[in-house]
């Protein structure tokens, strides 16, 4: 008879009850089914299908809540807690959260998932039989993906980041598209497990896509125009910058290129909100 192992689903017989639940058995080993892990009424000598895990004392325990994540199977799970000395704890659907070891996370803490982020994981045990979550490999992610087509070009896309590299981030979209976000197509590096929104800027022959997290041109220009307008408001409606200001001065004050500054300033002028005069820009009076 096979030994009972955490991370697996087995059918056991109810052996005896206890003040805090029932003891189940396979004829050789007993395991506690705690009251908190019971979802249906059971009677003595019933056969019960349960998921095995370790309780907070490290003892083998059972749950009638069968998670989709098991040893050999994968699913998305939510991060519920971060402990930098250990890793990320995830909720797999039972009353005990499972640890994804820091060894399986990025070396930079700022790129670790945060509570509410999602990871695609399976379960594994270490040499001491302790149960851990294990993020999916690239091959596993590819096995659940589907190819995009040229018709998907320029579409908005939402997905979850699952892999981080020096040059960019990999995501899988809600449709199942595999996407790559080059470092030039983002304003900051997203976290592992973070949900991101962008648009498809290229569809490759293999059906994978390149994704930009930057806004479309008119959206970016609108954000830049808002930044300039808010700065002018803080100065009473005038600023010592105009479309002939130096690129270095513009970058230092607004953190944008001169080309972007001129586009945004042109938008404000076209809307009749500002005008330029002798090196300054002013609000137009109503």
Automatic annotation (TrEMBL):
Residues in S1 motif domain copies: 5-65, 70-136, 152-214
Pfam family membership, one: CvfB_1st
UniProt cross-references to PANTHER family, sorted A to Z: CONSERVED VIRULENCE FACTOR B
UniProt-recorded Gene Ontology molecular function terms: nucleic acid binding
Descriptive protein name: S1 motif domain-containing protein
Family: Belongs to the CvfB family.
Species per Swiss-Prot/TrEMBL record: Bacillus timonensis
């Amino acid at each position: 008879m096979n030994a009972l192992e955490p991370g697996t689903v087995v059918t056991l017989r109810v052996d005896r009850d206890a003040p805090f639940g029932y003891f189940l058995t396979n004829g050789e080993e007993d395991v506690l089914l705690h009251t908190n892990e019971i979802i249906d009424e059971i009677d003595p000598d019933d056969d019960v299908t349960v998921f095995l895990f370790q309780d907070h004392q490290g003892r083998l325990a059972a749950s009638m809540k069968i998670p989709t994540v098991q040893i050999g199977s994968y699913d998305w799970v939510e991060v519920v807690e971060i402990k930098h000395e250990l890793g990320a704890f995830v909720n797999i659907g039972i009353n005990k959260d499972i640890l994804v070891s820091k060894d399986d996370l990025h070396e930079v803490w700022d790129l670790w998932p945060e509570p509410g982020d999602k990871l695609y994981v399976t379960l594994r045990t270490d040499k001491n039989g302790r149960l851990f979550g294990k993020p999916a490999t690239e091959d596993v992610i590819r096995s659940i993906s589907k190819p995009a087509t040229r018709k998907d070009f320029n579409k908005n896309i939402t997905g979850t980041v699952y892999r981080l590299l020096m040059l960019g981030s990999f995501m899988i979209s809600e449709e199942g598209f595999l996407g790559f976000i080059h470092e030039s197509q983002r304003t900051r590096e997203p976290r592992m497990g973070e949900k991101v929104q962008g648009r498809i800027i290229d569809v490759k022959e293999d059906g994978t896509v390149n994704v930009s997290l930057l806004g479309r041109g008119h959206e970016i220009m609108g954000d830049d125009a808002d930044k300039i307008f808010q700065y002018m408001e803080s100065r009473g409606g005038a600023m010592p910058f105009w479309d002939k200001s130096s690129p270095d001065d513009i970058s230092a004050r607004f953190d944008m290129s001169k080309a972007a500054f001129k586009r945004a300033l042109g938008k404000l002028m076209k809307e009749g909100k500002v005008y330029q005069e002798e090196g300054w820009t002013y609000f137009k009076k109503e």
